[in-house]
Amino acid sequence: MRTALAGFVALAVAYALGLEHPHWAAMSAWASSQPMREHLLSRGIYRFAGSVVGVAFAVALVLSAQGSLWVLAVGLALWGALCAFLGNLQRGYMVYGCMLAGYSAAMVVLLHHGGAEDVWPFAGDRMLTVVTGVLAALCISWCFAPRRKAAVLIAQSRQALAAVLDACVARLHGHSAAPGLDNASLLVRLAEVEELLELYPEGSRTARNTSKAMHWQQLQALELVYHLGQTAQDSTAVTDALDPVWAFAAIPADADADADTDAGASPAALADALQALAQVLRQTPAADSAAAHPVDAALREAIAACEALVERIQADGHAVQPGLNALYLLMQEMRRAVRAEQLDLGGPAYAGTAWLDRRVDPLPLHRDWVGAREAAIRAGGTLLFFGLLWAWTGWSLIAFGMLGLSVMLLVFSAFENPNRTMTFVLRGQLIGAALALLCQWLVWPWAQSGWQMVWMLLPFALLGGLVFAHKRTAAGAMDTNMAMLILLAPVFPYAQDMGKSVTMALAVVSGPALAWLVYRCIYPTNAQRRMRTLAQMMVAEVPALAQRMVEEGKPGLLPSLPASMAVAPAGFWQAQLHHRLLRLVRWADKTQHPRRATLPELGLALRATQSTMLQLQQWRRGTILVTPQLRRTERRAELALRRMAQWGAAHSLEAQAAAGQHAAQAWQALAAQPGLPVLLAAEAQRVARRYLPELCAARRDLQVQ
Predict the structure, then answer these.
(1) Contact call for residues 165 and 298 (beta carbons, < 8 A)
(2) Using CA atoms, how far apart are residues 221 and 483, in angstroms rounded to an integer?
(3) What is the number of other CB atoms lying within 10 angstroms of the CB of residue 660?
(4) pLDDT, tens only, 193-230
(5) Nearest Cα residue to 599 out of 587, 615, 617, 611
(6) d(C-alpha 413, C-alpha 419), whole Å
């Protein structure tokens, strides 16, 4: 209701300013309003910025076209495709800004009448209505909208991290994971936090710092979960012999009896410190420094216990393995995040907490390149078809219908299920068109002035707010108001024309109807398809990496690894894989996918296979192949990579099965070579016997679906 009031105020102010389209200001107020202050500010900024970019392009296009509808149609289609492509690659309200730039240009191009030199007043009217609507939404909604509740997200993030630490404690004690601490449950918890981070940083620099710190926490926690899952599925013999993760088997059982041995430098001491840290993380976060001190103190004790254990392992002449290293890095990321979280809670951070500015480190987040390309083709192709039809016929109703169609094809292309969303949008716009017709036929004929027409809109504006109150109409309530307002342009004296008003209403509702058909026929998108596309992208990374290694040739002849294969200091490729896995888990949980319980094994197979391939390439680079045995091992390594690339190039199910079997045989033969290091040979054996069959099964399931 407050948004409905803000929309009416924007309409009244725009009419008082003498703007040509005051109803656009009301539409901007509806589109800018958000339930929280920070989101309200961010949404308004992106709406203004997107409108500026879109209007600037529209003015340039109109001036270049010089009245040619063909040039306008082609230019608008290309611009819509570009905005759809860029928008689907963004996150948060940046998506809305990109989409708004697309249909703001459409509003100017399709609704402008007259010569090219007259576009400047029209474009200025568009910008002034946007500014009026955004300011009205800010001034009114700001008084009622609450601030972001940082404690909710921080508490959920800490609960997920505490669960990961509990699983680590069980591993340190040699126990199996308790119910709710298996890898699948841990992934679901981390994925839920990841979803909350989508819009959290909007409108606040402090929240952006917190979000960035939490992202790195999430990715490092998933790295630890990966190592926990790797040892949980290995046989005891292999684990004890090779000690691939924790390296605790190398510590003598009677070492604690040694007088010279530090009693705190033991797995048990580390487990106790982690358990204490997990208990502190489960406490309710607060803004005062007294609440921050226990977390920081527990983190310091856990880090000190981990460092003492590492020192003891190294003193015994053993290497610190990746699992313990992942735990240490996770605690360091948690330590960096404590101060950001405390500042976000509104209180002073603990003075002893370390903080490293990570503005230079890009977040390795997933980008949906496939969905962006499909959205660009869908939006650009459809707008080009109707634009050419408009240029050929010159019928203005086609241009009016294209306006609604451009909004539907741009804004909703990034939604989870745009085809299903169009049904709610169509229902909402039908209600809005019906309200607009009632106002035009029954109310406005009684108006004696323009201001009376404006005041007569107030009941209908409030009715638009009431549409949000019922569960059956709430899904399309925003479109109810948008359709109603775009049809109710208060112009006095009012000339009642029932036929024209019905025709305009049908042109408005034709947008979602046509968009429903387009979404259904051209690259149909839903949650299941998005999940399948993401999984295919993740699986395809393995043969693509093998192909790049094959194309590199003899690595010892080149000075360095290509940038596409280099491992960043912060573990960029692992972090991007982890972020994709979290999104995949969330998609599977939303769609209730029957095989969602196998996603931890898929993530483990992807992470371990790519890591083994990079280690193999590093061995090829750093080894001087002077003996026949080493040269034979090198040929086996190249054959294994080549077979992996061939497996990725196979298309049919039969060809994939045969190529996968050949690749497994090549990796098995490589693992049997005496010239290969023991740990690397063990990893190659796991690829042949465990990881590659899992990847083959996942790829087969994705192709069959």
Answers:
(1) no
(2) 46
(3) 22
(4) 888 888 888 877 888 888 888 888 888 898 888 888 77
(5) 587
(6) 9
DSSP class of residue 246 equals: -
Kindly state the tokens that stand for 401.
């219908």
Of the candidates 11, 9, 101, the one whose C-alpha atom is nearest the C-alpha of residue 56 is: 101
Burial 170-202 (b: 16+ CB within 10 A, else e): bbbeeeebeeebbbebbbbbbbbbbeebebbbb
Q: What's the token pair of residue 276? A: 């204490």
What type of residue sits at position 550?
A: V
Residue carrying structure tokens 């969905």? 371
H-helix or E-strand containing 524? none
| Cβ neighbours of residue 470 closer than 8 Å, sequence gap 6 or more | none
Candidates 123, 339, 225, 292; CA nearest to 599 is 225
What is the residue whose two structure tokens read 């819009």? 199
Q: State the Cα–Cα distance between residues 165 and 282, nearest whole angstrom.
A: 12
- At position 244, the amino acid (one-letter code) is P
Cα angle at 383 between 378 and 386, to 5 degrees? 125
Question: Whole-angstrom Cα distance, residue 437 to residue 385?
Answer: 30
Contact 133, 104 (CB under 8 A): no
Q: How far apart are CA 61 and CA 72, in angstroms?
A: 7
Cα separation of 588 and 595, whole Å? 8
Q: Are 402 and 383 in contact (CB under 8 A)?
A: yes
What is the Cβ-side half-sphere exposure of residue 367, based on CA atoms within 13 angstroms? 11
Residues 433, 314: Cα–Cα separation, whole Å:
75
Q: How confident is the model over 681-694, as a mean pLDDT?
A: 91
Classify residue 464 by burial, with Cβ atoms within 10 Å: 0-12, 13-18, 19+: buried
pTM: 0.83
Mean pLDDT of 115-139: 85
Structure tokens at 126: 């568009």
Q: How confident is the model over 47-101, as pLDDT tens digits?
A: 888 888 999 999 899 888 888 889 999 999 999 999 999 999 888 888 888 998 9
What percent of the chain stands above pLDDT 90? 16
Rounded CA-CA distance 435/501 in Å is: 12
Of 123, 335, 51, 375, nearest to 220 by C-alpha is 335
Token pair in block for residue 299? 């983190």
Higher-confidence residue: 283 or 115?
283
From 258, 181, 275, 289, select the one nearest 225 (Cα to Cα): 181
**637 vs 380: CA distance, rounded Å:** 46
Tokens of 71: 């040039």
Query: 484: buried, middle or exposed (CB in 10 Å: 19+, 13-18, 0-12)?
Result: buried
User: How many other β-carbons are positioned within 10 Å of the β-carbon of residue 590?
Assistant: 16
Neighbours of 144 (CB within 10 A): 12
| Both tokens assigned to 225 | 């979960």
Amino acid at 418: P
Query: Can you say whether residue 437 is alpha, beta or left, with left for phi > 0 and alpha for psi between -120 and 50 degrees?
Result: alpha
Q: Is the pLDDT of residue 431 over 70?
A: yes
Residue whose C-alpha is closest to residue 686's, from 358, 231, 152? 231
Predicted confidence at residue 500, as pLDDT, reads 82
